[in-house]
Amino acid sequence: MTELFKQLEPATQGTRKAISTLLDAARWNDDGLLPAIAQQHDSGEVLMMAWMNRATLEETLATGRVCYWSRSRGKPWRKGESSGQVQRLMAAHVDCDGDTLLLSVDQQGPACHTGRRSCFYVALGEEMAEIVSAPLMDPAELYGQR
Amino acid sequence: MTELFKQLEPATQGTRKAISTLLDAARWNDDGLLPAIAQQHDSGEVLMMAWMNRATLEETLATGRVCYWSRSRGKPWRKGESSGQVQRLMAAHVDCDGDTLLLSVDQQGPACHTGRRSCFYVALGEEMAEIVSAPLMDPAELYGQR
């Protein structure tokens, strides 16, 4: 917990800080990243979780189009750039200890690379796990031939 | 992406796997943990994100009471054990590549250690960040004298 986030704990609604000060105090991990949860703004459905560095978060806040950091490709990932399934940013929040982002988004079509609306389609029980949704569309349509 | 999660990508609704097989294939991080997002089951509000190892996830699935792994204390953290603000598990899901959990919970009172319902109370804009909710209760009431 950084000093700034500690100071903000008892803060009343409407208290403001410069975004640069806040992002200086955020607890980026050893790779300079924060996990970012994407939630559909109207339905409340949690769609996916990905990662952002400071540059991609700042780009997202400036443009209103969600841009993650792709850990596998090691570069910015403007959601929808290959699939067409863009995420528009409605609101962004950081949590109490400055180490997790929550994005309220408007997601076009499937958020998941499998063609499903949400990435969270495997339900876990004490004995069994079960697939709870089928793809809305063929991933080959989303990405072309792979 | 592990082979099992790759196989499950095109799976139809109702496909089942033994939970032990699925958890063997999950992508636990270098500390043996997965991030776990907690969402209030009826309102859809995202309350917090914390971490689970395999033992605390299995305990949670078995007991229906959410138990995280506390990274700071290095031990299981049965949510509410010091604050009284228990989380009951309604459903648990893992995502497409097996590296993030989504918990549907019934949270008693505030989820956040600051006394707020949700940990995500700092809104981020291009220039400014703003506190968007006040504590529901005094953290001193939640935890006693600290």
TrEMBL record, chains A, B:
Amino acids binding Mg(2+): D95, D97, D99
Reactions that this protein is recorded to catalyse: 1-(5-phospho-beta-D-ribosyl)-ATP + H2O = 1-(5-phospho-beta-D-ribosyl)-5'-AMP + diphosphate + H(+); 1-(5-phospho-beta-D-ribosyl)-5'-AMP + H2O = 1-(5-phospho-beta-D-ribosyl)-5-[(5-phospho-beta-D-ribosylamino)methylideneamino]imidazole-4-carboxamide
Recorded superkingdom: Bacteria
GO biological process: L-histidine biosynthetic process
GO cellular component: cytoplasm
UniProtKB keywords: Amino-acid biosynthesis, Cytoplasm, Histidine biosynthesis, Hydrolase, Magnesium, Metal-binding, Zinc
Cofactor: record remark: Binds 1 Mg(2+) ion per subunit. Binds 1 zinc ion per subunit.
Family indicated by similarity: In the N-terminal section; belongs to the PRA-CH family.
This protein's name: Phosphoribosyl-AMP cyclohydrolase
Gene of this entry: hisI
